[in-house]
Amino acid sequence: MASRGSSADAIEVFMRDFGGFGGFGEVFGQRGRSSQAGPPRGESLRTTLSLTLSDVAHGGTHTIPLALLETCQTCDGVGTVIADPCPRCHGEGRVRANRELEVEVPPGVTSENYITLRGRGHVGPRGGARGDVVVLLDVQEDPRFIRDGSSLIHERPITFSEAALGAEVTVPTLDGSATVRVPPGVQSGALLRIRAQGLPPLNGERRGDLLVRVVVWTPEHLTADQEELFRKLRDVEDEAPERVARSDDKGFWSRVKEAFTGS
Description:
Number of strands: 13
Strand content: 25-35%
Oligomer: single chain
Largest sheet: 4 strands, mixed
Number of domains: 2
Distance between the termini: 48 Å
Shape: rod-shaped
Number of helices: 6
């Protein structure tokens, strides 16, 4: 396990190096062109850290296992014992060892981000400085939600009666579940907002919203009693309008955008 000081260093490095993959040339390239004297620096390495949307919402410390080249304790990294190659490292001056590193992941990350841990990679030959560890973040998809920036979208089927009469329905959240009120006469495709149940922006604290898209479910098979009730309803219900009255005639994603912006 890394020390608490190492976790603080990880946060500092993250703030400096966080971004897209444009920095890989600096991280992995040009090492051989250094004009500085002394032992060469150790190689950098990459690893992938899988995250859930809940991890993105809350941030936190994660432990990653790595196989690193460490200084040979038999020859102190020189590679020889007197004049003969070291029997442990066979003249390399380094031996492979399993290590665990802690990496602090702030809230709001995406799969386009990575974290660079400076000086935490392989030790260099003959006591050279350590390389870096680049942690690629892989945010796993959650089948319950669509992510759009700091907001989440969940599709919730409801019945005819719930749409006509209104209801309180339960929807999943990243922290468990929540209850949302469906107003009477809601139309399929309407968006209902649950505040502060989405994701925070990068390094932010205030979470976005969860948007619940209501979808009126039509049963494919009816019992005899249900069919009789629907036939009675058909005799007394109003005819459907040529167009469903909405506050706008825009598509679903346009309504989602307006729900995000509040316009």
